[in-house]
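Reminder: ligand-aware prediction takes two inputs, not one.
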Amino acid sequence: MERTLVLIKPDAVQRGLIGQIISRFEQRGLKLVAMKFIQMDEALAARHYAVHQGKPFYPGLIAFITSGPVVAMVWEGKNAVATVRATMGVTRPWDATPGTIRGDFGLTMGRNLVHGSDSVENAAIEVALFFDDGEFVNWQRETERWIDDGE
Ligand code: DAT
Ligand code: MG
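Here is what comes back for the chain with magnesium ion:
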């Protein structure tokens, strides 16, 4: 069972899209196991986007992600990392397939609404950046057998 980090970025929060974005992951069958509404500080932003340090868009990226509150969530399920990425759509919203979050709501790369971990390895690192062990909710979802075939 995989877990992955999702951020609803400041543009999506400001545009009132929190509910619609959460719905996309809920209806996909992923299971929410942790969630918080926070404003990221520079230190957390720098750790989260460490891989992009030194790139020309890095200063703007840090300014943007710290510019307003974000919703941080951990979603769990089989192939959760790839499923979240597919539900988000590709980085450039103009290339994102309609039906994806970025393909439905996005126009530019600097306002692309959501973050999702790009590998199982990075997901573990990113989840730990945002959540302590005690912040996960262990719960039984009664619809589980209608979502996961157990294969
Ligand atoms: P993703 O968010 O799809 O994982 P990424 O990890 O390559 O994409 O980049 C992180 C964010 O940085 C991305 O959501 C938008 C911004 N970004 C990436 N490449 C950019 C570029 N060439 N110009 C401006 N912003 C960029
Ligand atoms: Mg990325």
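The first strand starts at residue 2 and ends at 8. Residues 118 surround magnesium ion (ligand 2) (CB under 6 Å). We will return to this case in the review session.
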